[in-house]
Amino acid sequence: xxxxxxxxxxxxxxxxxxxxxxxxxxxxxxxxxxxxxxxxxxxxxxxxxxxxxxxxxxxxxxxxxxxxxxxxxxxxxxxxxxxxxxxxxxxxxxxxxxxxxxxxxxxxxxxxxxxxxxxxxxxxxxxxxxxxxxxxxxxxxxxxxxxxxxxxxxxxxxxxxxxxxxxxxxxxxxxxxxxxxxxxxxxxxxxxxxxxxxxxxxxxxxxxxxxxxxxxxxxxxxxxxxxxxxxxxxxxxxxxxxxxxxxxxxxxxxxxxxxxxxxxxxxxxxxxxxxxxxxxxxxxxxxxxxxxxxxxxxxxxxxxxxxxxxxxxxxxxxxxxxxxxxxxxxxxxxxxx
Length: 337
Ligand code: A3P
Description:
Layout: H1 15-27, E1 31-34, E2 37-42, E3 45-47, H2 49-61, E4 69-73, H3 79-90, H4 107-110, H5 114-118, E5 135-138, H6 147-151, E6 155-160, H7 163-179, H8 192-199, H9 208-221, E7 226-230, H10 231-236, H11 238-249, H12 255-260, H13 262-269, H14 272-277, E8 285-286, E9 290-291, H15 310-323
Parallel strand pairs: 4-5, 4-6, 6-7
Antiparallel strand pairs: 1-2, 2-3, 8-9
The structure holds adenosine-3'-5'-diphosphate.
Organism: Rhamnella rubrinervis
Keywords: Transferase
Pfam families: Sulfotransfer_1
């Protein structure tokens, strides 16, 4: 087998050549199976099959625009929620909340993901039909983002969630994919092997600490370029966080909009309860694999207590302490009363 190091792709190749080279590269990558799903290791991160080709090709082929808005996240940290919020904030002059496209289109279709939607097979698609400013999402770590994003002034919003709730959310999500049915919100213990894999950095888009720390560090160095948000803060005080988000995106709420209650309206439109109960979010499979319902499970802070054993909590807390030591980043695993 050829070594991944000896294979390169470049923008001048024709489509067929490009896809062949990507395929060769993918076949030469370290590969392991997690819950029946193969994961490929590329530049230190494990990627699922529906993202690996897109990661490799978008690094070279994605052309960022200065006005692009990028939502980045580790999976299960609130990506769906932020897609809905960013779309609603940016497009509020085109669509009032009561006529929002979110009522009939899934958040993931309104804000597609660079690696698993636009570049899924290695070739760019559906980029020309996007309205300005373009909004993209990605789970790639900062270090692996397309060069043109890092070289541009486009704004990146990173949403982060405490690792205890994230691993639980991911466990339900993977189970629902494997079983291809609805994720259960019922208490049940997480599988030991799944948990161990997460802690050793072997899950889709893991290690989670690299993903989070990469964006955290850039948000400190370049706060005008990366806004770091927490799922828990959004749950605690959505109006305050929405104002912060809108200002960062370059679409601040005016005093008049605030007085009219527009922030609350957007918050309600994008709330877990509202989105989960919309017909469009209750049917179908995404990427021919993921039940749409799996994106809306419970939407709570602190649900880990129902699914992790005390010893798992201790292990994960220790790991977090070790990996995030000195970073200044603090996770919240319950809301203030
Ligand atoms: P739970 O599994 O804990 O319920 P992502 O969108 O990154 O895949 O994250 C999915 C998690 O966010 C799931 O968490 C899901 O229920 C929750 N979620 C989805 N939409 C939400 C919303 N509008 N508000 C709050 N949480 C939401």
